[in-house]
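Risk register update: the risk of archive-format incompatibility is retired. Evidence:
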Amino acid sequence: MHELSVAQSILDIVHQSVPQDELADVRIVRVKVGTFSGVVADSLDFCFSAISAETPLAKARLEFEHIPFAVECRQCQKTFENDIGFVVCPVCGGVDTAVLSGRELQVTEIELENEKDKIA
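Archived output:
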């Protein structure tokens, strides 16, 4: 399960981006996951929860933005999306295509609890 190593990499990114004394304030880690990134979001979420459970990041959760597989045809300049990774243009049948999105796997934002939201 490579989602475990991806979850560890996300934790590493959080540790590099957030000061040590604010790690317990992390609430949401937003991640872009492309349809063809090779990552199963539910598995990644499970692994992240498991390895952060006994750490200052125990209250943090992942929030996913799912990015569709999108392709542009270089012959007719049409853009199309699909869920199966099909790269033949449905408009002109062209095979000279460029993948525009769908392979992303990126931490985009780390949200911390606001001081005013904390209960003393």
